[in-house]
């Protein structure tokens, strides 16, 4: 494939002209991608990579229907939303039709970060309060207001980085969190922690404007909130005069299969006050949106301060958004998410029977996480091993990432056209790599007695907090496993 620069020249120019904090995947040997189609990406040599992580290309890279819609509208007109245009209202109508009735008002913007920033403004204006409750390990965007409420980011800067108006609630993680799968009602227990945060804030004369959470935590380790959690949190937050913001930037638009929006997994009796979206909404085009209630929108407008976004809701963006909605329906991508996602989980469960390094498999539709452990009883995170696996998969032309607080969770969130053949290809490769690691470290591939887990549960937290990432790496080095050949960056990348 003809490119103006060699890969080496591209790297050289990037170092010269692009800010050093702008990281690339696989920094030791980054990939130069020159084109992509469906669930595949191609480098400058024509090598094909299976894309298991690109939730931006929601309906598939370079989808012809989306491309045609963009070109048709761009040839005709593109302008800002201060002029009347049917694309804007048509798209708003089509988008809000996917939501519960009370979520009926749209604000179109250009990125997930812009959407979440605007959601905070809406919440603060409506409530008259300022403080925000966020989840531990959460990430909501790169602008200043969102770094402040993203522990995933600000915790890297030290304890002093947390602002006094930010309150961090425990991630509702039933595998690694304080309330686990053996708790009779973890959803209520985690929600009670939020209520205690509210009470403590009130003691300090602080008022809650909003609780914000991804409907399923992605950077936090593919965490699916337990049943009833959002309902109880919303009850407590509303009582405190705040609103509930559901961040669907990574997990919306049918990725869970059975529902169009991930918050709907909590049941019909839960409806957030504000929903934000980005990434998949435009299949790679910079488009995002905030959807809220008429009551909140009118409170925002009552300030007299006009809200204007130059490119938000322009005719081309809305044409693309309409095309994405159409493709999801015509190609039954929600159905595909169910069928392929279930198959992927089945394959991974088979591997869990075989490999004790697989501690937990969690997911819905095409949003799946594999929590790798050094000890299944202690649930000690296998960070070095996870990093080793994603680099080795890259050598096999498979793109996967690892995230979570310990960077030990393999993350699946591929384009929605992902197939069963793709799923089997990836799982077979993971099986091969786990077998090699276990062979090198002398780990047996046998099923752990799960009853022993319950007997030893009191020791889990202490060991999990004190075990060093380098512990297993050092032991593995003695047996020929060398994770340090793929160094673990201290900086995390969001995908």
From TrEMBL:
It comes from the Eukaryota. Gene3D superfamilies: Aspartate Aminotransferase, domain 1, Type I PLP-dependent aspartate aminotransferase-like (Major domain). GO terms for molecular function: ethanolamine-phosphate phospho-lyase activity; pyridoxal phosphate binding; transaminase activity. Its cofactor is pyridoxal 5'-phosphate. InterPro entries: Aminotrans_3, Aminotrans_3_PPA_site, PyrdxlP-dep_Trfase, PyrdxlP-dep_Trfase_major, PyrdxlP-dep_Trfase_small. GO terms for cellular component: mitochondrion. It is found in: Mitochondrion. Its EC number is 4.2.3.2. Keywords: Lyase, Mitochondrion, Pyridoxal phosphate. It catalyses: phosphoethanolamine + H2O = acetaldehyde + NH4(+) + phosphate. Catalyzes the pyridoxal-phosphate-dependent breakdown of phosphoethanolamine, converting it to ammonia, inorganic phosphate and acetaldehyde. Belongs to the class-III pyridoxal-phosphate-dependent aminotransferase family. Homotetramer. This is Ethanolamine-phosphate phospho-lyase. The lineage of its organism: Eukaryota, Metazoa, Chordata, Craniata, Vertebrata.
């Amino acid at each position: 494939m003809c490119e103006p620069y060699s890969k080496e020249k591209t790297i050289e120019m990037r170092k010269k002209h692009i800010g050093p904090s702008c990281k690339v995947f696989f920094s030791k040997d980054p990939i130069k991608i020159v084109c992509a189609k469906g669930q595949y990406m191609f480098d400058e040599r024509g090598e094909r990579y299976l894309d298991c992580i690109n939730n931006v290309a929601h309906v598939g890279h370079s989808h012809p229907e989306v491309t045609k819609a963009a070109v048709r509208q761009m040839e005709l007109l593109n302008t800002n939303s201060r002029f009347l245009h049917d694309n804007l209202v048509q798209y708003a109508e089509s988008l809000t039709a996917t939501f519960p009735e009370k979520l009926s008002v749209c604000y179109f913007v250009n990125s997930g970060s812009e959407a979440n920033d605007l959601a905070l403004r809406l919440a603060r204006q409506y409530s008259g309060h300022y403080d925000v409750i966020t989840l531990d390990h959460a990430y909501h965007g790169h602008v200043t207001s969102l770094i402040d409420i993203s522990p995933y980011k600000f915790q890297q800067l030290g304890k002093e980085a947390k602002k006094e108006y930010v309150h961090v609630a425990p991630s509702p993680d039933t595998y690694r969190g304080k309330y686990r799968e053996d708790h009779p009602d973890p959803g209520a227990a985690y929600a009670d922690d939020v209520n205690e945060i509210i009470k403590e804030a009130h003691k300090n004369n602080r008022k809650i404007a909003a609780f914000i959470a991804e409907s399923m935590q992605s950077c936090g380790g593919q965490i699916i909130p337990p049943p009833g959690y959002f309902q109880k949190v919303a009850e407590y937050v509303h009582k405190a005069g705040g609103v509930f913001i559901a961040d669907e930037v990574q997990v919306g638009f049918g990725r869970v299969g059975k529902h169009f929006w991930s918050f709907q997994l909590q049941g019909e009796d839960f409806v957030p006050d504000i929903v934000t979206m980005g990434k998949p909404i435009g299949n790679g085009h910079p488009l995002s949106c905030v959807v809220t209630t008429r009551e909140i929108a009118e409170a925002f407008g009552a300030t007299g301060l006009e809200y204007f976004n130059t490119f938000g809701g322009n005719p081309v963006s809305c044409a693309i958004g309409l095309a994405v909605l159409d493709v999801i329906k015509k190609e039954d991508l929600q159905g595909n998410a169910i069928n392929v996602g279930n198959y992927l989980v089945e394959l991974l469960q088979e591997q869990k029977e075989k490999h004790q390094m697989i501690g937990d498999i969690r997911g819905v539709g095409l949003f799946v996480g594999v929590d790798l452990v050094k000890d299944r009883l202690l649930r000690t995170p296998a960070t070095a091993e996870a990093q080793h696996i994603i680099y080795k998969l890259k050598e096999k032309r498979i793109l996967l990432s690892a995230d979570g607080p310990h960077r030990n969770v393999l993350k699946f969130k591929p384009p929605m056209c992902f197939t069963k053949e793709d799923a089997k290809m990836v799982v077979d490769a993971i099986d091969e790599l786990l077998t090699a690691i276990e062979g090198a470290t002398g780990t047996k591939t046998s099923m752990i007695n799960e009853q022993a887990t319950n007997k030893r549960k009191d020791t889990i937290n202490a060991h999990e907090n004190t075990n060093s990432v380098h512990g297993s790496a050092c032991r593995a080095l003695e047996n020929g496993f060398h994770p340090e050949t793929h160094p673990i960056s201290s900086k995390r990348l969001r995908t």
